[in-house]
Amino acid sequence: MSKNKQDSEFHKDKDKEHNVENEECCHCECECCEDGECEECEDCKECLDCKKLTEELEKEKQLKLMALADLINYRKRVDKEREEMHTQANRRILLHIIDVIDDLYRAMENEKENNVMSMLLNKLGTILKDYSLEEIKCDKGDVFNPEVMEAITAVNAIKDDEKNKVVDIISRGYRNSVNGQVFKSVKVIIAR
């Protein structure tokens, strides 16, 4: 083996040892780092270039992280908007179904025994349940609750204990069974 080849392999081995022993090395190949101790010098052009490249690399990493965060936020926003559009589209259809249910209940008040209307009400009720809607329980004589009820009109109370209570129910109300949010408030007549 020639002397030059031996010298170059010796220096390679030394460089490997140096990099393993000194983790804080800037890993540049400047002349000031060849003696086994890596010291960043301000005069060495290679050290300055290495430092500049490291800073640029760090800036690029930060830019990529910010772009990734923007992309994740964008996807979340689009998913939320899509869900809201889907809900609004369903809302219109469900409100029409609820109107039909109210009409059927009014028709059944006149005809107590009607199996066809009962069957229709059950099927429509099942559709509402499929969309996580449940009826808000409200009876005549209940205390008016503005969170789930909407007072259409008020009539004079005959007795003092009837004040602020439900006199009649105009239409049923529904809420989301998952989150409890009111979908359609109960329309009532109250006593004042």
Please give a structural write-up.
- A three-stranded antiparallel β-sheet has the order 1-4-5. A three-stranded mixed β-sheet has the order 2-6-3, with no helix packed on it.
- The model is unreliable at 16-25 (pLDDT under 50).
- It has three helices and six strands.
- The protein starts with a helix and ends with a strand.
- The longest helix has 66 residues, at 45-110.
- The chain has 192 residues and is of the alpha+beta class.
- A hairpin with a 5-residue loop joins strand 4 (174-176) and strand 5.
- It folds into two domains: 55-131; 134-192, Head domain of nucleotide exchange factor GrpE (Nucleotide Exchange Factor Grpe, Chain A, domain 2), CATH 2.30.22.10.
Order of neighbouring strands in the sheet with most strands: 1-4-5
Oligomer: single chain
Helix content: 40-55%
Order of helices and strands: HHHEEEEEE
Number of helices: 3
Q: What structural class results from the helix and strand content?
A: alpha+beta
Cα distance spanning the termini: 111 Å
- In terms of per-residue confidence, which ranges show pLDDT below 50 for 5 or more consecutive residues? 16-25
The count of domains is 2
- In percent, how much strand structure appears in the residues? 5-15%
Query: What is the 3D shape?
Result: elongated
The biggest sheet, with number of strands, parallel, antiparallel or mixed sense and barrel status, is: 3 strands, antiparallel
Number of strands: 6
Averaged pLDDT, please? 81
How big is the Rg?
38 Å
